[in-house]
Amino acid sequence: MTEDLEEDFDDNDGADGGADSSQGKGGMKKILLIVLPLLLLIGGGAGVYFSGLLDGLLGGHKEEPVAESSAPPPPVAKAVQAAAFMDLPEMLVNLQTSGRKQAFLKLRVALELESVADQPRVEQMMPRIVDYFQVYLRELRIEDLQGASGMNLLREELLTRVNAAVKPVKVSDVLFKEMLVQ
């Protein structure tokens, strides 16, 4: 009886079974060769469209936001004064290091004053400003100056020190013109 079953099993696995399996694999290959490139093409096109690269090629433009008609125009309290900028002398300081190797900071900054009339007071206090900056900068380590957060902290500290030196004049901002850590 087992011999009969084995013969029946062998008969079913003959030429018939082999043709069905090769037919199934060939159909699957055709589907993959057609569908896969089509999906890649559609996906790539969607990526280009959503990234905005297609706008420049098609001549598209960004719409400007339309202001609400019910909103009143912004109030104009006084005429806007032009800000005055004043360059400080270049500073070169050695930074704190733990090893024998020395590190230096070369810094050029400009001060943004609220008005041109404040410039004589700032020029008069320039030795004090440079002194405050030098004392602070010599205490810095290389790690203190790394990254955007280090730059922002340095800007805030220098702004605090310059405003303390030139009171009652107010300095709006400290602008970095050159900063080199070596």
UniProtKB/TrEMBL annotation:
It is a single-pass membrane protein. GO terms for biological process: bacterial-type flagellum-dependent swarming motility; chemotaxis. InterPro entries: FliL. The keyword Cell inner membrane applies. Residues 1-24 are annotated as: Disordered. One of its GO terms (cellular component) is bacterial-type flagellum basal body. It is found in: Cell inner membrane; Cell membrane. The chain crosses the membrane at residues 31-50. Keywords: Cell inner membrane, Cell membrane, Cell projection, Chemotaxis, Cilium, Flagellar rotation, Flagellum, Membrane, Transmembrane, Transmembrane helix. It comes from the Bacteria. Residues 1-14 have a biased composition (Acidic residues). Controls the rotational direction of flagella during chemotaxis. PANTHER family: FLAGELLAR PROTEIN FLIL. Belongs to the FliL family. This is Flagellar protein FliL. It comes from Magnetospirillum fulvum.
